[in-house]
């Protein structure tokens, strides 16, 4: 289920070139904001929840997920180089699971660690806010990676659709339309943060914890399964 | 020794039939897949390389299906037409990655040997993005050869190559063919096929238009006149004798060439009658050369048919 060569190629595609800069920009911004708020406001639980929930989990994690999830496969499908992976005695499920693991690893590295660090800077992990959001981000990273990797196998405009989902659906609809919130990876992971954080942390989710866990598992599992299926019948359109 | 069997295979995309009921066997040696752009060559190659399921019929490697059978790739080397090839790797890393993906026992040695075969060891440490078109093509070849496949499929391999690179690749393919590998390459350029492959498969508008030695295919088209240029000790006497024979439909005396241009309608009868007639007339033949038996004329005939 894991091929080190596929992993190496995917890592180099994700972390090489300009993509690494984009990936690193948002976490860097988060740290800068955290330092600035701490210096101006002092330690503040409410500010920590606002920044980690409102910016980190709501915007940074899905954006990093889009870049890593779609970037793990979409460019290869787009330029046709995926043919070098597919024309090998390799199960296509192995290609997908390997790419998924790499996307998860990259998303985790660029979200969980900076969130933990920012949380400690903001309020020293008081009310376990830093820990709660770090765990939520980790779980969300897995689900985002699976969903956006699938998107990368389905659409040539994966990044656009990913951004629309991350920014319009999760951020905009999520805050305006109550029903949309229940169908949002952000809300599912918030349910986990809510459980972990102390009672004074003021973290609330639209969904209950069991429902959130089930939905996260289903989204990740279905996304991975269907991505492998898509890759299995990939016909390299545009080459005819 | 491996043969690709294509049996009554069709492939359609919605309402468009790209490949229409084609049956052919691709045997060891070099085969040229010839046809104009959009004739269905790439669709055929994609089916042979497991990237497209036939809508009807079967495409098999010996007797194993190729579609949804990754094990077939142990015997297939594919040189795709598209350029995308992990430009951020060096040529050496690229071929090594291909060797590893094949699960070869010693990928490093296999990659080195493949790079040597295509004479790319000197540039192996350069990034693929810095390569010329010909170098990319050679590294693609190395990646396709790294596991010593018995079948080599090349989609338009000469596209964009300069003459020297073309010669080099042709030489390489000839070697592969002589080694007993099944080499199939597609092209819409007649000279390429003519220079490299004695055996051709012609596809026109999704249909299998012709198969075999292109000279023989040409001869089989008896309903189309064949042109010969003939020089002899007495052209006019020979011309008179030839026009009296039903194998010949027209003769012109080419004063510039100082030769006869003969239009024959029956290849077999013409080639057996010509020497007999010459001897009867006491005429010595100096030159008998088919003047339009190039692939170009075969091809334009097939396309217009």
TrEMBL record, chain A:
Pfam families: ABC2_membrane_2. The chain crosses the membrane at residues 20-39, 51-74, 95-122, 128-151, 158-180, 207-228. It comes from the Bacteria. One of its GO terms (molecular function) is ABC-type transporter activity. Signal peptide: none annotated. Coiled coil: none annotated. Keywords: Membrane, Transmembrane, Transmembrane helix. One of its GO terms (cellular component) is plasma membrane. This is ABC transporter permease. The lineage of its organism: Bacteria, Bacillati, Actinomycetota, Actinomycetes, Kitasatosporales.
From TrEMBL, chain B:
Coiled coil: none annotated. GO terms for molecular function: ATP binding; ATP hydrolysis activity. Residues 1-230 form the ABC transporter domain. The keyword Zinc-finger does not apply. Transmembrane segments: none annotated. Gene3D superfamilies: P-loop containing nucleotide triphosphate hydrolases. This is ABC transporter ATP-binding protein. Pfam families: ABC_tran (PF00005). It comes from the Bacteria. SUPFAM superfamilies: P-loop containing nucleoside triphosphate hydrolases. Belongs to the ABC transporter superfamily. InterPro entries: AAA+_ATPase, ABC_transporter-like_ATP-bd, ABC_transporter-like_CS, P-loop_NTPase. Keywords: ATP-binding, Nucleotide-binding, Transport.
